[in-house]
Amino acid sequence: MLWLIQTLNQEGLKDAWTDDTTLGWLYQYWNDPDKAYIEKKLKGTGVSKGKIETHEIGKKTQLFTDHYMVEWLLHNSIGDQWRAICQKNQWSDKEDIVKNWSGYIWKDLEESYVEASAHLLEAVKILDPAMGSGHFLVYAFDLLYSLYRVQRELQKKEFKGSEIVDIILSKNLHGIDIDTRAVQIGAAALYIKAKEKSPDITRSRNKHQK
């Protein structure tokens, strides 16, 4: 095992372990041989031609989203939600925060959209129906965490990291996937993110549940 630790601890890989999506990309590359086999199976190239079995669907349909796409999609969805919340609560001076978000498209929000939107961040629901290893959810975690800090300031309430992490994980973020292993990796990535924001999150959640 020492050789593996030394290999993973190489200086050239240092930045990889600070990237929230590394676990997901590793899993994709791990599945590449199976995906290649399924492609050959469908075409009858080198192997017997056949249909995709139920347990092979996940490996055939997996497509990990690049960071810039995740960023753009979440900035333009959560960004609009935040602006609607600001308009509902008359926090107009904080609405401009999203203007600094990469790729955010500023536009007038329709009155019906604002009316239907959440009143506070606690009511925002984000569902990834094909979450894979959680790239969208992990990035959404960071965005929400930063916005909760602003919301607590506007509410004149104390910002408690462990409380916010608990709210994000229990109320805001939801995901499902046909690949249970990918879901486990996504859960692990979110756990790491939670511990990064609040090292005592496990203890705090257990206390809250009692």
Q: What is Rg?
A: 21 Å
What are the segments in which pLDDT stays under 50 over at least 5 consecutive residues?
203-210
Q: In total, how many beta strands?
A: 2
Q: Give a quick account of the main beta sheet: strands, pairing sense, barrel closure.
A: 2 strands, parallel
Widest β-sheet, arrangement of strands: 1-2
* Global morphology: globular
What's the number of helices? 9
Order of helices and strands: HHHHHEHHEHH
Provide the helix percentage: 55-70%
Provide mean pLDDT, rounded: 84
- State the separation between the terminal residues, measured CA to CA: 40 Å
**What share of residues are in beta strands?**
under 5%
The computed structural class is: mainly alpha
Estimate nothing, just give the exact number of structural domains. 2
